Amino acid sequence: MSDIDIRNQGRAGRITLNRPKALNALTYAMCLAVEEALDRWRDDPAIDLVLLDAEGDRAFCAGGDIAEMYATGSAGDFDYGRRFWRDEYRLNAKLAEYPKPIVSFLHGFVMGGGVGLGGHCSHRIVCDDTRIAMPECGIGFVPDVGGSYLLARAPGRLGEYLGLTAARMGPGDAIHAGFADAYVPRDGWEALKQALVETGDVTGLDAAMAPAPDSPLAAQQAQIDALFAGEALRDVLNALRSDGGDVAAQALAAMSRNAPLSMAVTLEMLHRLRGPSLNIRKALEMEYRVSHRIMEHGDFLEGIRAAIIDKDKSPKWRHDLDNVPAVDVSRMLMPLGKLSLSFKERGMKIGFIGLGNMGAPMAANLIKAGHEVSGFDVAGVTVEGAAQAASAGEAARGADIVITMLPNGAILRAVAAEVIPVMPPGAVLLDCSTVDVESARAVAEQADAAGLAALDAPVSGGIGGAAAGTLTFMVGGSEAAFAKAQPLFDVMGQKAVHCGPAGNGQAAKICNNMILGVTMIATCEAFALADKLGLSRQAMFDVVSTSSGYSWSLNAYCPAPGIGPKSPADNDYKPGFASELMVKDLGLAQQAAEAADADTPMGAQALALYRQFVEEEDGKGRDFSAMLPRFEKRGRS
């Protein structure tokens, strides 16, 4: 049975959480499923409202499923949690800003992630057994999923009180604090849901509403405001200790169990947020500053261990209750710069075919950026975080973009014939292989006939660039397809150049590499000549690198060991770009030159020299700059 039931019913889109034994704890997959449904219904004229509820009697949703976060975080992998939080927070904002009414039915426990899911909807219904809380400080975290937004808007200092003590709110308290909108007795829920489904009209809520129960928090408001008005955690603790009343004693007992750093950060967050500029996105962005750091620099993993894993209820917090340095609080809330929370739509669904030395790190970078990757490689290579497909067709099925990194044009044509029939209309086939221009254009025609787009986007930058995400893409294909793939180019590389229609990416790559092959030979010849003329290699580099002989082959990839920036020459010519790959690319250049009737004598000679180096000498498996030791050994013949 699915963890979540999403369906159209009458005039409503319905979402029902279906993990009652787990108190409907929210998983990553459930978050993504909810967002996908909201996106689908946003512009659907058949859907007038969204109805959100849950199975079971005990909880609407008691929080997020944090077991996987603990497992990955304990192993030193913080990216899984950060990706989960990024996607969940984007969903929280989407719920708050949704253009159609969303009615949430909040019964039983509604905590943490449950507040993020049901607490930002336009119409929030509670009943007698509703118990809403933000208990995150108890596990070394802070109120998140937009909880800080609700807390900062609560009357007086209720936000501080609720965030620091994790106090549970009944229906009257929830309405008073702004976490709910209406009280409807539980026995009237089914009839109300049926009316909403049939009519798609939320005005029917008014007739179903009953007077809200009394709010104990409202009665204690003045006392809470006085006790929790302090600027810092120490100020609040001093006020509680000096009061002596029941409210203060109960609050102090609750806070003594929570992570001191979490409470100090929560207090600072609420103070920064409260004001006329507050909105849901501002709150979520600040929460993500903490989320991004909390496993590595906070008490989150220890809190989960004590509460959920070992269940010893004895966490060893980083700080004492009375000694949380202000600098540690500030550090948790520092802006993240380029890593700041973005509310861009969630990552694309990507099929990646060809997970070799280049493809595997490229796929890994896409996964780290939040994209959903299904990978296939004939050698059975897998990439952590990618779904392993049994075939190229399986990897491509339903993908927004299919990326291929393959050895040659014949294999590209075969893979294209397999994947194009299963790709959805409007998807993009993005080939990053280096192949012949004719194959690239043939595949593009086949894709176009199937209602798809194709891009030929060979890369420059080698294995190091693939791992570092600094590749350069030379792209052929339509402007529209290039625009759709641009976010992926930004993840995998530092530059993407649109070179024109289909095939032009391959044309740019082979022209570039023909220049590279020719200039590397000339550079190696010059170093060998300098040796024989008694000119030191360093002197030659110093002169030529700043003179008219300047080239990438010399300045960035110097073939002489110990000269210039570090290169494969400094690692016994272990390949960054293997000589046999240069043979391949120079061969493609000559094939294209013949087809275009272009005179390329230097390119032809470079091909002949590299082919001899690989097939008859010791060049196979060595970097293409290993031409230098070849020329060192040779005299003029």
UniProtKB/TrEMBL annotation:
Residues 13-332 form the Enoyl-CoA hydratase/isomerase domain. CDD domains: crotonase-like. Keywords: Branched-chain amino acid catabolism, NAD, Oxidoreductase. Residues 349-500 form the 6-phosphogluconate dehydrogenase NADP-binding domain. Pathway: Amino-acid degradation; L-valine degradation. It is an enzyme of class 1 (oxidoreductase). InterPro entries: 3-OH-isobutyrate_DH-rel_CS (IPR002204), 6PGDH_NADP-bd (IPR006115), ECH_dom (IPR045004), HIBADH (IPR011548), HIBADH-like_NADP-bd (IPR029154). One of its GO terms (molecular function) is 3-hydroxyisobutyrate dehydrogenase activity. It catalyses: 3-hydroxy-2-methylpropanoate + NAD(+) = 2-methyl-3-oxopropanoate + NADH + H(+). It holds the Pfam family NAD_binding_2. Residues 503-628 form the 3-hydroxyisobutyrate dehydrogenase-like NAD-binding domain. Its EC number is 1.1.1.31. Belongs to the HIBADH-related family. This is 3-hydroxyisobutyrate dehydrogenase. It comes from Thalassococcus arenae.
